[in-house]
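User: Okay, second chain of the day. Same drill as before: sequence in, structure tokens out.
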Amino acid sequence: MPATAPMPPAVGPRLEPSVGRPLPKREDVALQVVPCDLKTANEFVRRLHRHSRPVVGHKFAVAVAARLPIGDARPGGAGYGMHMDCIVGVAIVGRPVAPRLDDGKACEITRLCTDGTPNACSMLYGAARRAARAMGHAPIYTYTLPDEGGASLRAAGFRLDKEDAGGSAAMWHNRPGRTAQPVGDDLIGGKWRWIG
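Assistant: Same drill. Structure tokens below.
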């Protein structure tokens, strides 16, 4: 999906990007952390996440919004100095998915999704970690695929806890009566667990 596609707002009415005007370079966009409800975060995940689906429940969600100019760039021009906020990424935090990690204090960043805006991932991981800590959660877990690197996680204060933590794909659906959802070849195998 192109970066110019409309994104759902964090709170309130839908905000559309300016029509017919080129957006500023992504590196020049000011980012800010904003509150986000689960419905908005799940819609963002549904539209942009490359392999995960929306979640059923959560403890909280945060978003990162880019402040984009929408008026004339010339002083005195129509709409000079006007801007709008457009969501460029979301993080959803919930209980740990692995039952043995769910001790009542731990939490897990279950989804993190951006449109590719530089620094949005690091900003979301850091904001989610700080908010979870402020609410008394410790530790904070999250998982990545091995080919995703982890630079944003390290920048946000996470450290690699365990490689191959997710187990094999066959282990993901080992409860009687539960049907397996088809996954792509990139999801076969373990995941890396990070702790913050």
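Residues 24 and 68 are 8 Å apart (CA to CA).

User: Thanks, on to the next one.
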